[in-house]
Amino acid sequence: MPIWLQNQMKRAYYEKNRYQIKLLNQCWYFYRKKHCS
Questions:
Q1: In the chain, where does DSSP find H-type helix?
Q2: Handedness of CA 13, 17, 22, 25 (dihedral sign)
Q3: At CA 26, angle to CA 24 and CA 31, rounded to 5?
Q4: Total-model pTM
Q5: Which bin fits 16, alpha (ψ -120 to 50), beta or left (φ > 0)?
Q6: For the segment 3-33, what is each residue's pLDDT rounded down to a tens digit?
Q7: HSE of 18 in the Cβ direction (CA atoms, 13 Å)?
């Protein structure tokens, strides 16, 4: 997982921002799918 994404995740979890967490999870999913296929 890229460092910028880790930092965003940490901040989202710290702020308990469910919308942000959901968004970042989707980003990570698509990112992984694109780079690992």
A1: 3-14, 18-36
A2: negative
A3: 95
A4: 0.64
A5: left
A6: 988 899 899 989 999 999 899 999 889 988 8
A7: 0
Contacts with 2 (C-beta within 8 Å, 6 or more apart), sequence order: 31
Look at residue 4 in the predicted model and tell me its pLDDT.
84
Q: Among all chains, which residue has been given the structure tokens 């901040």?
A: 11
Q: Residue 37's pLDDT is what?
A: 64
- Quote the CA–CA distance of 17 and 31 in Å, as a whole number: 21
How far is it, in rounded angstroms, from Cα 14 to Cα 36? 29
Tell me: pLDDT of 35 over 90. Answer: no
